[in-house]
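Appendix B. Raw example, untouched.
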Amino acid sequence: MEEKKEGMKARIFVSYSRKDSIPARKLINAFKEMKYDVWVDWEDIPPAARWMDKIKEGIERSDAFIFLISPASIKSEVCNVEIEHAAKYNKRIIPIVLEDVLAKETNNTIRQLNWIFIRKADEFKPGLERFRDAMELDFEWVAEHNKLLEKTLDWHHRKTDDYLLRGAELRRVQSAVETAKNKQPKLTDLQKMFLDASAKSEQRRITRAIIIAAVIAVLAGLTIFAVLQSNLARANAERATANAILANQQKAIAEKNAELAIRNAREARNAQLEAEKQQEIAEERRLLAEDRARIALAQQSAARAQIYQTQPGGLYISTLLAIASWTTSPSDEANAILRKNISLLPIPMGQIQREGSINALAFHPQGDWFVTAEADSNACVWNASDGGLLFCINSPRSVKDAVFSPNGEYLVMGDESGLVQIVDLESRAVSAAYQTGAAINDLDVSRKSDLIAVTSDDRKVTVIDTAGKVKFPLMALERLLVASFSPDGIYVASGSSGGTVTLWRLTDDSLPISKARHRRDILSMAFSPDGKFLVTGGVDGYAVVTRVSTGEEIYRRLHEDWVTDIAFSADGAWFATVSTDKRIRLWDTADGAERLRMSQDGGINEVRISANGQWIATTGADRTVRVWNVSTGAEMFQIPLSGEGLALSFNRDGSVLAAGDAAGAIGLWDISVVPVSQTFLQFDAATGDVQYSPSGEWLTASAGPQVWLLKPGQFASPTSRLLTNPSLALNGDVASLTFSPDSVWLGVATVNGGVLVYNLQTRQPRTIISSGLEHQIAFTSDSASLITSASNGVVEVWSLSSFAKTAEWAAEGSGVMSLAVGPSRIALGVTDAINLLTPVGEAAEKLESPGDHTLLAFSADGSLLASSNSAGLIEIWRQENGAFVRTGSIRRDAVHSLAFNPDGTRLAVGTATALYLIDPFTAEETTRIPHSGSVEGVAYSPDGSTVATASQRTLQFWVVGALEEIRSDGLVTAACMRLTANFSPAQWSNLFGAEAYRVLCEQLPIP
């Protein structure tokens, strides 16, 4: 094999699974023979070194990262950490396949790259040649990139300007970066920050040198001039004395010298003023440098806030960093981070720290108390308004479960020693006890009687009464883990370690129904509210639905890992399962159809559904509590925890959420600040558009090829699917809907080019265009015609009396891509402009604006126009003195819909992830409502009290007056309301280095 070019020796890092050591050693030896400097963890880590830190350092200092692909390596947690670290620093990554794997199972970074195959069946030498070619591509830039990364990391870790680039070295690196701007690897954000800091430092150094030189020159000139003038004056005096007799003759000379002295004094004054001016310039530059430093510091805080925003449990740190950035130097980046975090964080009501993990948590039926079962041998009852402690009951061992009775009169608690205690809540004392002799695994209280089911680790479910007397000793053949009463109290169900589900009927002597439903431990179970169905979940990954009356299995649904918890909706129409596969799934009870699927960043331990049916709460290994919208699956809250989340509970009306974690932290949050839809309708297909008629009589919505005409306010129950037949069924999915200003006509456009109008009085449809290119449509302001705009640029006008084309306002190729009609203007969106026409189609005005204008909307009175281009730039135009003037802009990614409220004071913007309400006069966001999918349609009711959104398969209606508005000047206050503490001094030092500590939220404690 040919030797590498002189000076091309590269440092490479090899990532592999220990199961592939033999082929890995063969390749590594070959790499060394090719004169590569190979970093491998069996050679390069000293015995006392911190293993992972050394691995990361090896990756950072390598020129290329080699990943050996095999079934073992793609599943290796360490390998995936190494891949992510290499990708973080834009390392050249070269995947080499040792054994075939499925691409979809590999890390996303590896999946996107070209692979080199050196399997057992492949020829070894050609594979090495392909590897060498990959290594030598643009190697000079790769080496330069790595050197720059090393200097960047030295600067980043040591936090001092001594490591910045200067002079010729800086200019050389800047030239290399400019030359390689189209090459791989790209600079990391940290490298860019390093180069920017170096350039700014160099500029400051040069500026200081220039100022000092200028000041010295001015002072030297003034000194010399003063000496000369002094000598001249002395000579003149001597000459005047000696020539006193010639005074009259020299008078003219003296006067001339006097004038010269005056002139010289004036020039000296001017020189002084110039020096003062230069001093002012120097001061201005100093202030400018300080301002730039402040902006750089704010940008750094915003960048870190964005990183923490994406990390599980990082929202509190992210929010504090964003506050630090905003209060240092306000920016769009900090504004966006704060608004997103505010939308995801509820308001804390109480934070409690206990000694041991919180094993269980439940609210009192009245909602004013909650109880925690704690590993520190206590069950404690707390005030739900502020988290204040009411009382604790001690137990010999760790308390495994604690529940209130449905009537709210007593509390039942059980511990690892097998002791069950019944606590009278009025006296706050233990009224009865029962000892099982084995650890308690689960407790449940019947809703129909004063019976308590005690599941213990001796294969028993013992049903006792409130006096601690045994009523039903229920024995199983296997260790029992969970048990539950049916809602009517007739049955007790249990789940065993062997996967057996047993149903005992307590009202007669019939034999229990016992079936092996799972292959291993049953971890969770739940009865449907009507008691007809029992759902069990286990380690085998199945959720199994059983008919209670017969014990027969109805269906089962497979998960990717353990099913850890199950919860039913209040009406029993659906149930939720959570799993260690990080997924939350919603299932229709009747047939097991999957309604929704959500995910978080770790295995999930517990799920709860609010009694009002609006929210699902989950918690688990990622140290967060998530709250989800039941109708859409949108993530409404993400609450950081101190440890792994173990227990959850909503209060009675769903306005308060409590959680406990493995670190002993208990949190209490007010979630009533979350935007709540007044009602919602669900469809069997993705919703397309929604519109109110101007008269307010009709609401129309589309889903797939179907269109519904509805009476606002007369909807089905909030959680039911729309069962009535659609008003229109078309031969293509609906693209857009629009009402005529007089509310007589409904216009419909389909994605396959169809356009029709529907007369709301006669209930008769009329096809305008049967098929072809997709159109945008709008009625003229007098409701006499329909305007259509095809995707090829053709704009046509159709009479609603004859249904014939009456005019063509733009020909094919005109570039028109959007359409909106106001009372006095018609807007056509094209590339880099918006063309405004009169109502009869004559050119009126051209608004210059960058990008492809894909969406347009007028306010009801036509005084405001909103546009959105393909890059997500939203611009707002206001009519002044007969012409439209741009008043502001705001950027949002992937805009799908626009609509003004009736009085033009708010612009609703639907994007891929949320609905935003914008103040059109300041272009400032005031409200944000998260959605789980793109908001394809948005519309205000004619009175402006309701805004409707169409997203995924759901139509949601939001009461505008109940939505929280947050202005930019209130961002910090709103953010601080959602936090529990300031940075500790140690956290501040870690994040900000030597910068003086600041209290970011005055009302919050300093840890």
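End of appendix B.
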